[in-house]
Fold this sequence. Notes:
A: alpha/beta; Rossmann fold; B: alpha/beta; 4-stranded mixed sheet; elongated
Amino acid sequence: MNKSGIGKIIYTEEQIQKKIAELAQVINRDYKGEKLIIIGVLKGSFYFVADLTRHLTMPVNIDFISIGSTPEDLNITGAIRFTRNVALNLTGQHVLLVEDVIGTGLTLGFICQHLETFEPASLKICTLLDNPAGRILTLPIDYSCFTMPDLFLVGYGLDYNEEYRNLRYIAEYRE
Amino acid sequence: MLITISRQTGSQGKEITELLAQKLNLPIITRDLVMSRWMPEIANQHELHMLTQSAGFFLSDSSQGITFADFLENKLKELVYQQSVIIFGLGAQIIFDDYTGALHVKIMASQEIRINRIMQTHCLEKKDAERFLDLTDRKHRRYISTIYGKDWSDPSLYHITLNTDNLSIDEAVSVLYYMAQNRQSLPSSQVDTLEKPTEKSVVFKHPSEEEFAAILDMHNIEWQYEPRTFPIEWDTEGNITQAFAPDFYLPRFDTYIELTTMDQRYVSQKKKKVQKLKKLYPGTNINIVFKKDFYSLAKRFGLGEDNNRK
């Protein structure tokens, strides 16, 4: 793997795992005695989902969704589409949506609107990195590991041109 | 775009739907597709058989704890949310009765004409064609009344009813094609205008606002343009001396948005206005989209970049 663009390490593997374990304790407490459906947003969240869910103690079902658009569809109403939709039945279930990064909230808003049509018992949001300064939509973020610095980050699921996702840490990317 | 088509057997509804789909380049969702591709996700062989035999069985719980009718409804909604389609039957005119921009079509013909057509297409004697029609009509009615408690023949369920007694397939398709094209060319705000005469079409003050609205539209996020003006300064006599109208309001997220693609010196003025608004109207969610963030969004979604001032 080409690591030439990697800059300073922002969160080490140890910091990430410690934070996830702490967050999982809070989630375990909040959903004690309940079944929980975890929905990860591909691709960036898959390591986070994998590590987080292994700390959870309640019955857990896991699913993934993915959204995208084609260049020719842009500028058209409803152009952002699900390239992989949720397969589990969410009606009446407690759902936790897991993101890698929440920035403007537009993508998150799009996904939440969709998931709400299934009428889950509850829908909460969990993110590895939160960038509240860039928020456009007002959305309650229920669980967050780290605040996003004003840097381009790679690693632990985050990519630059599909590279660096498999780094165990999160680092700054410099072109 | 969503078109739902309900038809009587022998009305040529199937042929009209297929030609319309071809002209509009839209997929058709039929009962056959539902039974062969969707239902096997939750139904075993016995259940699939029962679903073909009994409308009431759609109300039974599947092994996933959801009724087959609800499963079908969810699948249809997911699909319609993602792409334009024509739905043939399946009670879609009821499932999507309040779906903005949908076109609900009923295709029918007189009993006599339908019997003649069935006699020809199925090579049946008249009495057998009558029995055939009686049976299929009852099945259609029963499915809608059992699952949705509605009368299939209720004209209020449809935007247009075509009687094909003296209407060719081409003529029927032309009418529907025109209606579909006409609906598609109307922005959602104008479709709403047809239903809510009090609302007006939007005239943006700046191209960047129009682009931002397009970004919201891409995400299916409902918006209102400058719906409210907040007084933020008054003179000693209580007259309003300064007011602030944020560019957008997003009802679903209870959020006001102010765009600032202008020079930096004006940005600080806007920031002060926003701070005042937040202080005077606590609990009001308002976010500023700064120049850099706006152009980053616009670039990401393939919109113009020549709007450098506002």
